[in-house]
């Protein structure tokens, strides 16, 4: 019998990259997920990747995915030489930079393996395995992606810079957040982009200090707007966050075109989400009609897009 496990995709509403340096961020699961199916195999680890994905994604991420797979089996003490396995990945999460696809991969596989071997891992243990996989895959991740992918919902996340427990607060949404997720079609390696930001910060600490301070205020205001269900303000703060990300070199012409198109067609705010320099742009809208309008305008420009809602709760 095949064992299954799910891992949810995510968007970061506020604070990607800043979160790596211990600033708080807000992220949410989306309803799309990766589904891992584990079955007995014939030799070693047979990995079949049937996830939908943007062009070039799987090629760009090939080595990262392999490192993740090796880390998962190692951390879970699974010896595929002794117990050959076949892992198939599928699901309705379109793998792309920025959507937390690597965390969803790790979470879904960890859950499926736990089910297959009847290890009875709880969410905290699944999250730990996924974090180790993320570290192996992308260097120095904050841990936000695997946390959202494992627990679902919307969270405020603050990395413990001393290596202890991260601060995670589950946020309750007054109203569901409707978004359009638009794809630049460009895949980026998170590790490389995070490394570039680190180098830029070392070169110009004063600039980063100012931006981090700005972001700190923005986070507080955004948290308040979300708690009150004030979509208009939330959208405005998202656009402000985009400006800060632009200042540290994380934008690109495609992102800016998508942000501009979304806002011109009625989005309350729009920003890159996740790694940046490509990947995805999230556009906040206040109604189904507005979601259709923004979606159609983006499609007309030749970009791929999806309509989704935030705050999906992960289930095993
Ligand atoms: C990637 O989804 C988010 C980054 O902030 C990296 C991380 O937090 O690990 C860019």
Summary tags:
single chain; 316 residues; alpha+beta; six-stranded mixed β-sheet; 10 helices; 10 strands; 44% helix; binds (R)-mevalonate
Polypeptide structure, described:
- The structure is a single chain.
- With 316 residues, this protein is of the alpha+beta class.
- It is built from 10 helices and 10 strands.
- It has helices at 57-60, 62-75, 101-116, 123-138, 144-151, 190-203, 205-228, 231-247, 253-264, 288-300, and strands at 3-14, 25-40, 45-49, 85-91, 154-158, 167-171, 178-183, 269-273, 280-285, 304-309.
- Strands 1, 2, 3, 4, 5 and 6 form a 6-stranded mixed beta sheet that branches. Strands 8-9-7-10 form a 4-stranded antiparallel beta sheet.
- Strand 8 (269-273) and strand 9 (280-285) form a beta hairpin.
- The chain is globular.
- The structure holds (R)-mevalonate (MEV).
- (R)-mevalonate (MEV) binds next to helix 5 and helix 6.
Note the main sheet. 6 strands, mixed
Strand content: 15-25%
Structural class: alpha+beta
What's the oligomerization state?
Answer: single chain
Question: Cα-atom Rg, whole angstroms?
Answer: 19 Å
The average pLDDT value, as a whole number, equals: 94
Could you say which overall geometry the principal axes of the C-alpha atoms support?
globular
The first-to-last residue Cα distance is: 17 Å
What portion of residues is helical? 40-55%
Strand segment tally: 10
Order of helices and strands: EEEHHEHHHEEEHHHHEEHE
Bound molecules: (R)-mevalonate
Instruction: List low-pLDDT spans.
Output: none
Helix tally?
Answer: 10
């Amino acid at each position: 019998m095949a064992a299954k496990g799910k891992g949810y995709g995510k968007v970061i509403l506020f604070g990607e990259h800043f979160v790596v340096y211990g600033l708080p961020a807000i992220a949410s699961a989306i309803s799309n997920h990766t589904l891992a199916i584990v079955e007995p195999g014939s030799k070693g680890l047979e990995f079949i990747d049937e996830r939908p994905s943007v062009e070039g994604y799987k090629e760009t991420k090939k080595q990262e995915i392999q490192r993740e797979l090796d880390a998962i089996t190692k951390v879970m003490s699974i010896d595929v030489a002794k117990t050959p396995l076949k892992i198939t990945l599928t699901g309705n999460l379109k793998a792309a930079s920025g959507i937390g696809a690597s965390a969803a991969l790790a979470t879904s596989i960890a859950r499926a393996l736990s089910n297959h071997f009847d290890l009875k891992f709880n969410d905290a243990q699944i999250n730990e395995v996924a974090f180790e996989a993320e570290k192996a895959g992308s260097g120095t991740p904050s841990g936000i992606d695997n946390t959202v992918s494992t627990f679902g919902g919307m969270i405020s996340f603050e990395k413990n810079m001393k290596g202890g427990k991260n601060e995670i607060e589950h946020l309750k949404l007054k109203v569901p957040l409707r978004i359009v997720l638009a794809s630049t079609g460009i895949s980026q390696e998170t590790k490389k982009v995070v490394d570039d930001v680190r180098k830029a910060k070392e070169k110009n600490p004063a600039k980063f200090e100012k931006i981090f301070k700005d972001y700190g205020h923005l986070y507080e205001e955004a948290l308040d707007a979300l708690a009150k269900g004030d979509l208009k303000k939330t959208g405005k703060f998202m656009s402000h966050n985009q400006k800060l990300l632009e200042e540290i070199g994380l934008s690109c012409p495609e992102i800016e075109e998508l942000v501009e198109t979304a806002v011109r067609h009625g989005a309350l705010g729009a920003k890159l989400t996740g790694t940046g320099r490509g990947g995805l742009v999230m556009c906040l809208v206040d109604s189904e009609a507005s979601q259709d309008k923004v979606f159609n305008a983006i499609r007309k420009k030749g970009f791929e897009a999806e309509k989704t809602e935030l705050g999906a709760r992960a289930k095993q």
